[in-house]
Amino acid sequence: xxxxxxxxxxxxxxxxxxxxxxxxxxxxxxxxxxxxxxxxxxxxxxxxxxxxxxxxxxxxxxxxxxxxxxxxxxxxxxxxxxxxxxxxxxxxxxxxxxxxxxxxxxxxxxxxxxxxxxxxxxxxxxxxxxxxxxxxxxxxxxxxxxxxxxxxxxxxxxxxxxxxxxxxxxxxxxxxxxxxxxxxxxxxxxxxxxxxxxxxxxxxxxxxxxxxxxxxxxxxxxxxxxxxxxxxxxxxxxxxxxxxxxxxxxxxxxxxxxxxxxxxxxxxxxxxxxxxxxxxxxxxxxxxxxxxxxxxxxxxxxxxxxxxxxxxxxxxxxxxxxxxxxxxxxxxxxxxxxxxxxxxxxxxxxxxxxxxxxxxxxxxxxxxxxxxxxxxxxxxxxxxxxxxxxxxxxxxxxxxxxxxxxxxxxxxxxxxxxxxxxxxxxxxxxxxxxxxxxxxxxxxxxxxxxxxxxxxxxxxxxxxxxxxxxxxxxxxxxxxxxxxxxxxxxxxxxxxxxxxxxxxxxxxxxxxxxxxxxxxxxxxxxxxxxxxxxxxxxxxxxxxxxxxxxxxxxxxxxxxxxxxxxxxxxxxxxxxxxxxxxxxxxxxxxxxxxxxxxxxxxxxxxxxxxxxxxxxxxxxxxxxxxxxxxxxxxxxxxxxxxxxxxxxxxxxxxxxxxxxxxxxxxxxxxxxxxxxxxxxxxxxxxxxxxxxxxxxxxxxxxxxxxxxxxxxxxxxxxxxxxxxxxxxxxxxxxxxxxxxxxxxxxxxxxxxxxxxxxxxxxxxxxxxxxxxxxxxxxxxxxxxxxxxxxxxxxxxxxxxxxxxxxxxxxxxxxxxxxxxxxxxxxxxxxxxxxxxxxxxxxxxxxxxxxxxxxxxxxxxxxxxxxxxxxxxxxxxxxxxxxxxxxxxxxxxxxxxxxxxxxxxxxxxxxxxxxxxxxxxxxxxxxxxxxxxxxxxxxxxxxxxxxxxxxxxxxxxxxxxxxxxxxxxxxxxxxxxxxx
Amino acid sequence: xxxxxxxxxxxxxxxxxxxxxxxxxxxxxxxxxxxxxxxxxxxxxxxxxxxxxxxxxxxxxxxxxxxxxxxxxxxxxxxxxxxxxxxxxxxxxxxxxxxxxxxxxxxxxxxxxxxxxxxxxxxxxxxxxxxxxxxxxxxxxxxxxxxxxxxxxxxxxxxxxxxxxxxxxxxxxxxxxxxxxxxxxxxxxxxxxxxxxxxxxxxxxxxxxxxxxxxxxxxxxxxxxxxxxxxxxxxxxxxxxxxxxxxxxxxxxxxxxxxxxxxxxxxxxxxxxxxxxxxxxxxxxxxxxxxxxxxxxxxxxxxxxxxxxxxxxxxxxxxxxxxxxxxxxxxxxxxxxxxxxxxxxxxxxxxxxxxxxxxxxxxxxxxxxxxxxxxxxxxxxxxxxxxxxxxxxxxxxxxxxxxxxxxxxxxxxxxxxxxxxxxxxxxxxxxxxxxxxxxxxxxxxxxxxxxxxxxxxxxxxxxxxxxxxxxx
Lengths: 979, 472
Hints:
The structure holds two protein chains of two kinds. Chain A is of the alpha+beta class. Among the domains of chain A are: 2-35, no CATH class; 283-393, no CATH class; 638-703 and 963-978, no CATH class; 717-944, Jelly Rolls (Sandwich). Chain A is 40% helix and 11% strand. Chain A is built from 31 helices and 21 strands. In chain A, the strands form five sheets. In chain A, strands 6, 7, 9, 14, 15, 16, 18 and 19 form an eight-stranded antiparallel beta sheet that branches. A seven-stranded antiparallel beta sheet of chain A has the order 13-12-11-10-17-8-20, with no helix packed on it. Chain B has a single domain (12-224, 287-471), classed as Alkaline Phosphatase, subunit A, CATH 3.40.720. Helix content of chain B is 32%, strand content 16%. Chain B contains twelve helices and 17 strands. Chain B has helices spanning 12-20, 25-35, 69-72, 77-82, 149-158, 168-176, 235-253, 260-283, 290-296, 304-318, 340-364, 430-440, and strands spanning 57-63, 112-115, 120-123, 136-143, 186-190, 215-216, 323-328, 371-376, 380-386, 390-394, 398-403, 411-413, 415-416, 423-425, 428-429, 450-452, 455-457. In chain B, strands 1, 4, 5, 6, 7, 8, 11, 12 and 15 form a nine-stranded mixed beta sheet that branches. A two-stranded antiparallel sheet of chain B has the order 2-3. In chain B, a hairpin with a 4-residue loop joins strand 2 and strand 3 (120-123). The model of chain B is unreliable at 5-46 (pLDDT under 50). At the A-B interface, helix 26, helix 29, helix 30 and helix 31 of A face helix 2, helix 5, helix 7 and helix 8 of B.
C-alpha cells in the first residue's frame, strides 16, 4: 500500500542516515519532512486492534465499543456508570438524532415499553428516529457547520444566493437516505465529473461554491486566489482534519505538512469553473427543455431581435464601463479572443464577466422615451407568449472544470513563481498524484477532483476515515476521541482512545460507510447509554476527574438551533415543512435549519448561542454562557410568544395544579414532583398577587365572563353537524378559540367550511369573524398578510350580514394589497347556516373566491353559490399567525353565536367535494365537531383580548402567571441541557 | 478583573482556582481541549504582558469611509503645483478602487496652520481638533491591505481583509476581561441608523466564543436589544421570574454540581438583571451639566449625534467598559468620491467639536491617561481626483491619531511621499497599529494567543510591531 510504503522507506532512510536515491527535488522534500515528527501517529496506517478482553464483572459491556472503553477504565480501577433511566435515554436519543425533545406522551409510551423490554424498546426507538426525516435536519446541520454553509456572498453587499439552499436540501436528503459517506464525499468534491448526468451529484458540488464572494473586487486574480485558498483551507480541515492553512506561507511549524502540500492540495481544485449556467437536470429533461425552448425562440424570434436591438447600445456601453474599472492588464485579458485565453485567464475573466453582467442587467431599466415604450410593448407581447416558454430548469450553484487542462496552483506573490501539480500529503506520498480521466464521465474535465475523491474514499485511508468517525463520536459524546475535530495535528489534542478510533474507522468502511449503522452501534453501547448523574468513585476522582475515559455520559447544552426548535416544539408550534428557499427572521415557525443564513447579519439564536460564523469550517461549537443570552431568553419577543403559547395550552386545565402539570409536560416532557408543584403554585400566587397589588398597566381587570360554566350550546341537528356547538361570545371566556395541531398550514389555495348560527351583527363597522389566520395592520406589508371569513356589520358599506372574505397578500403587481371580497350572500341572525369559501390564488393575474351558503333552518332554502375574482397571486399568509374561530390573531372583530362544525382543507374543493356534496373530499387539515363535555384537543381557548402581542396588558392574572411559569421553564437548565 | 459576563471556568486563573477546589490537571486538560478556547500555560489572558500598560480602556473613533489625510493632517504643497496634471512618472501608479486610471491630481483648498506648542499641522476643516493637538500624536504613515471599503473596514477592525477573524475589541476583551460586571465590556456606537460596512462583523468574534463580541448601544427606551422587560412586566415581576428560574436551576444543579456551566447560567441571570438596571443609567445623559453637553455640541443638530456618542463613550469608560467603538459617518459617509468639498465640510462639522470635547473632557477628569483614544478611518484618499472633484481610496498612506493611554501628545510621526500617496517614513501597517493599541493596554499582540482548531491565533496574524515612538 502506498500509504505504508513511503513512511516505511522514509523511516529506513532516517535510520540509515541517508536520504536514499531519490531525485534532488524529492530529497529536499524528505529533508524538510525529516525536520518534523514523521512518526506522528495520525499519518500512520490504520492499526488493526483486537477488541480488548475485559473482566467486566458487572456485565456492563453491550458491544465491542464498550470493551475498548472499559479496558482503559479497568486499568485504572474505574467503574463506569450504570444505564441512564428511560426518560433520560429517550431525551438524549431524540436530541442526538433529530435535534428535538420528545413529547410527554412519547416519553410515557417509551417508559412503558422500556419497562417491559428495555433493549427492544431502545433499539426500536433508535430505528424510528433514524428513519425520521427530522434526522437529516439535525445531522445536515452538523455538515453545514463543517462546510461553512451560508445563503449569501459575504462582504459588504452580502448578496443573497437564491439557490444555495438546494445544496442544503441535498445534504439533508443524502443524510436521510443514509448515502454512503464515500459517495457523499465523492459527489461534493467531484459530482460533476463522476456523475454529470445525475442532478443530485451536480447539486452536491455546491460545496465548492460556499466561498465568500466580493461582487466589486477589481483585482480578479487576487480574488481567484482567495477563493482557491478558501476551498483548500476548508477541505484540509473538513476531510483531512488538518490545519492546512498554517502551511500556506511556510512548512507547518508543528506537523509534517509542507508548504508544497498546501498547494498540491489546492491544485486538485485549481481547475474549477463556477459556471452559473449549470442546472440540476437529467439529460432527458435538458433535451425536452431545449426542444421546447427552441420552439419558443422560433415563435418569438422577431420580437426578441427587435428587443435586443433596442438594448444593444446600452449593453455595449455597460460592458465598456464595467471593464474600464479594471487594470489595463485585466482589460486586455477581457478583450482577448476566447481561443487565446489560458485556462487560468478564463477563470479570471469569469470574475470580470460577473461584474459586466451586473451592469448589463440594469440596461433595460435605463431605457428612455420611445425606446422605453417600445421595449415595454415588446415585453408585453412576449408575456402573452410566456405560456409557450418552458419553465427554466433547476438552477444550482455548482462547478465544472474550466477544461481538460487545469491550471497549476501557484503561491501568491512568490518570487520564484513555483507551480504545483496535484499531490497528496508528502509524508504519505511525495510523488505527484496520478490523475487520470478514467472514471471521469464529464467530457471536458481534468479528472483532478475525481483523483482526490478516489484517494479520500479509499477504504484504507487512515486520514479521512478517522476524521469522520471521530466526528460521529463528537456529536454523540460532546467531545471527540480527538477533541479537536478539525485538527488531528500536534497542536490538537491527542486521542483518548486511539485503538477504538482505528477500530471504528475500519468498522465504518465495513459497514459500507453508513453513518446510520455506525450511530446505531454507538448508541446501543453501554458507554453512550450511561447515566451522567453519578459521582466519581475514588479511582475516577483520582485518575480521571475530567471524565476523559467516559465513566459517565457528558452533560451537554443544546445548540442554537436546538434551543429555538425545542421552544417551538414545546408549544406544538413547530412547522415541519421541509426544504425550499430559506425563510427570513423569526416569525416563520419552521425548523431553524431552513432559516435564511446570511453571512453578515446572523440570526438571533446563532448570534446569541455560539452559532458557526459561516466563514470557517466549524467542528465544535463553543458553549459560552453570557448575560446577553439571559436577556434574550427573558425578554425577547420570540421567547415570550412561545411562553404565551404554552401558557395558553396550560390554561385549558381548570386548576392551577392541572396547568402546572401541563406546562411541565409540554416543556420538560415530564410531570412535576409534589414539591415542584407546590413551589410553582406559590410562584403563580406571587405573580398574581403582584399583578393585583400593582394597579399599573399590568393589572387591568379581567373581562367579566358572560358564560362561565360551559362553552357549549345546543345546536339544531343537521346532516353536517351534531347537536352541539361551541358558543362564542365577546367578553366571555370563549370569545374566540384557537385551532392548533394542524399538520401544515392551508397554503395559498384552500377551503373553509363551517356550520354556524349568528346571534348578532356588530353595530359598528367591525366584522363578525367566523375563522381567520390574520393580524391586520394599517400599513400593508408582508407582516399583515392573511385571510378572514366573516360577516359584515350593520354599518358596513358592503350591506349588513354579507358573507365576505378579507384578504391581505401579494397582488398580481407584486405589491402588498388588501381587499374585501364580498359574496353578496346575506345571512340572517338566529338561523343555522352552512357556509363555505373556496379561496384560490397563485395564477399570474389573481384568482377567485367561490362562496357557498345554505340556510339550514329553512327546509326550502337552496344552496347559494357565487364566484368572485380577486387580484391576489399569493402569498396571503404569515405562517406564524394563528388560526382562530370567532376572531383574529389580534383584538376585536369577534364572532357572536355558535359554531357547530369547522373544516379546513389545504386545497380548493369542488362543489361535489364539500360537506354538502356527494363525493368525499381528501382528508381535511382539521375537521371539528363539538360535544358537550370538552373541547376537541386541537382547540385551545384563547384568553380574552389575547393575540395582538405578547404584551400582557389586558390578560387575566392567571394567564399572566402561567406565561411567567412557562417562560421560567424554558429558561431552566433542565430544558437547555441534555443529561 | 473578570471575563465579561461570562461565568464558565475558562480563564486560566479560574481553572487554577477550580483545580484547587477538586479539579485535577486532567480536568483542566479536558476543559482546555474541549473548549479549545485557551492556549496552554504560558499564554496568559487576563494578565498584562508588560509593565507599560497605561490604558484601561480604548475609544476608537472610526471615521467610516476614509477621511482625506491630505486635506486634514498631512499638507502637500506639491498637490496644488501639479493640480490638473497626471501623476508624475516617478510615482508608482496604483490600482485605484474605482478604476479611474488617468485622472489628474486634485488641488486642495485648505488653509493650513501649525497649532499648539508642538506646531502640529491641522487644516481649517478641524478648528476644534486644532485646540487639542498637544494631547495627540499624529501618525501620517498608516497603510493597509484592502482597497475597497469591505476589505479595509474589515482589516481595520479585525486585522484581516477577509471575514472570519475576531475584532480588535474582542481581542482586548478576551485579553483583559471587564472592569464592570453590569455593563458589556465592549460597546459599539453608531451616529445614525445606517449600518457600518460589514455590519456586526466589525465587532464580532470570528472563531472565538460570542462572549467577547461588541454590544451595540443606542439612545432611547431600549439602549440594548432585549434589555427592556416585555411589555407590562414590572421590575418586581421580572425579579419574581428570575427568582423562580433560580429556584428551578438550583434544584437541578444539586445532582450536577460537577458541571460548572450550570452554575454559570444561574449567575448569568443575575448579571442580566443588573445590566437591565445599569445600562439605562449609563446611557441617560440627562444628569450631565449644561457646560458639558455644550462642550460636546449636544443640541446642535449638526453635531448632536456624534456629541452624544462621544459623551456616552466617556461615560462608559468611566464605568469600566473596556472598548468603545464609535462610528462617525456610519455607512461610509466620509467616502468622498465626488464633491469632497461639501462632503468633508459636513463630516468635519459633524465630528470635530465632539471629538475634541471628548479629549478635553477625559483630560479634565484625569481619565485621559488611562483611556486610549484613536481617530481615523479605514484608509485615506488619493491625491488624484475622481469624477472631477472627489478623491478615491488610498490604503497606501494615510493619517490616524492617538491620544491618552500613555501616548506622548504633540507629536507628528511618520510621513508620506510628496503627494501623500504612499507611506514612506515609519510605515505603520494595520497590524502595527493594532499592536500599538494593544501595547497601550499592556498586551503584547503576538503573545495574546487563542487556540483555534489547533492553530495559535493572535490579533496580528504574526505580523506587526508596536510603534513605540507613539509613547515617547
